[in-house]
Structures are given as C-alpha cells and as structure tokens.
C-alpha cells in the first residue's frame, strides 16, 4: 500500500498531466499547478525536487499512458501483419482519443523542450526512438515469419512509418483537422501492402 506522500505525488502527476501536455512544460506555471491540484506550493514541491523533476515525472507518466493504450490495442494481433493493420486502425481514432489530452506527449515535449530544456528534450528523443524500435521489431518479425518481403530493411521501413505517423499527428493537431491522420493512414496502408507485405 502506498504512503500518503506517494499517493499525493501520484495525484499531482495525474492531475497536472493534461495541462503540461497542452501548455508545455516551460509554460506551465506553479500557479497553474496549485490551481489544478488545490494544494499549496509547499505541498506541491514537498513531493518533488524541482519543477523539472515534476516535469520529467509527468512526461514519463504521459508516455506510459499512451504506450499502454497502444500496446493493449495491438495485443489481440496474432502476427506482425495484423499488428500493422491494427496500428493504422489505432491512429485513425487517435485524434479523437487524444484531443482533450492535448495530443502526442512525445511529439509535444520534443517540440516544446528543444533549445529550452535539454533533459526533457533528450527524454523525448529517447522515447521516440523506442517507438521507432518497436516498429522495427514488428517488421523484422514479419520478415522472419515470411509475411513481409525479405529484401526490405526493417530499420528504414520503421523510420518511414514512424515519420508518416508523427508527421500527420503533428499536422492534425496543428490545424485541428483529423483528416490529415485518416488520409495518411490510407497512404500508410497502401505502403504496407505494396512495400512490406509479401
């Protein structure tokens, strides 16, 4: 069972997670945090070493939340081909599912923190590479299973797919128009069928 201090820490992280994701870590003030949580400044910073410590923990919470949702969605797939098909289905709903939360936390933090907060920026880059790596593993497994073409480079394909996904997510949230995602998923499905699947 968690201590009262640990419960307070969790409460603060979960409460401020959406505002950090929407406003950015640099633009979210202590006043915002106090107003959202209903706690005093002392209570907030009594649970974290600094604002940056809070920002790091919130970012990792946001990423875990996003990755868990994606992992759960893909878990019903029986093979790499089904995983890629489910992936495009997942992102077709991504705009609606993440709109109130402010969009992709990895994309948001890397854009927001670059040249401002090197610690957060580096964490964002690491998490982006992890997502790309997971795609590369799916593709490599598909090659090994004989589902995907043997002459493709799994790392290059993963980079292309990840760029297509993050690019359309960025554009959709920038213009508040989810058709950027749905249109790109149409293209991505064609890419999978023509470039990847045997």
Low confidence ranges: none
Mean of all residue-level pLDDT scores = 94
Oligomeric state: single chain
Count all strands and give the number: 0
- Principal-axes geometry comes out as elongated
Sheet of most strands: none
Order of helices and strands: HHHHHHHHHH
Q: Over all CA atoms, what is the radius of gyration?
A: 19 Å
What is the secondary structure topology, with strand pairs?
Blueprint: H1 4-23, H2 30-37, H3 41-45, H4 51-74, H5 80-92, H6 94-98, H7 105-113, H8 118-145, H9 154-175, H10 179-196
Helix pairs in contact: 1-2, 1-4, 4-8, 5-8, 5-10, 7-8, 8-9, 9-10
Characterise this structure.
This protein is mostly helical and 198 residues long. 77% of the residues lie in helices and 0% in strands. The protein is built from ten helices and no strands. The chain has helices at 4-23, 30-37, 41-45, 51-74, 80-92, 94-98, 105-113, 118-145, 154-175, 179-196. α5 (80-92) packs across α8 and α9 packs antiparallel against α10. The radius of gyration is 19 Å and the shape is elongated. The model has no long low-confidence stretch (mean pLDDT 94).
């Amino acid at each position: 069972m968690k201590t009262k201090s640990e419960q307070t820490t969790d409460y603060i992280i979960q409460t401020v997670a959406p505002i950090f994701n929407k406003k950015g870590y640099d633009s979210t003030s202590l006043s915002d945090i106090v107003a959202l949580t209903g706690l005093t400044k002392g209570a907030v910073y009594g649970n974290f070493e600094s604002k940056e410590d809070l920002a790091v923990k919130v970012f990792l919470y946001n990423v875990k939340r996003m990755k868990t949702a994606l992992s759960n969605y893909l878990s019903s797939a029986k093979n790499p081909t089904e995983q890629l098909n489910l992936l495009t289905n997942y992102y077709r709903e991504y705009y609606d599912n993440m709109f109130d939360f402010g969009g992709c936390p990895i994309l948001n933090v890397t854009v927001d923190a670059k040249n401002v907060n090197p610690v957060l920026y580096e964490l964002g880059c690491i998490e982006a590479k992890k997502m790309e790596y997971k795609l590369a593993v799916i593709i490599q497994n598909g090659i090994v299973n004989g589902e995907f073409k043997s002459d493709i480079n799994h790392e290059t394909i993963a980079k292309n797919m990840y760029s297509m996904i993050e690019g359309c997510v960025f554009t959709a949230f920038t213009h508040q128009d989810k058709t950027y995602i749905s249109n790109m998923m149409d293209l991505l499905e064609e890419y999978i069928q023509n470039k990847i699947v045997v």
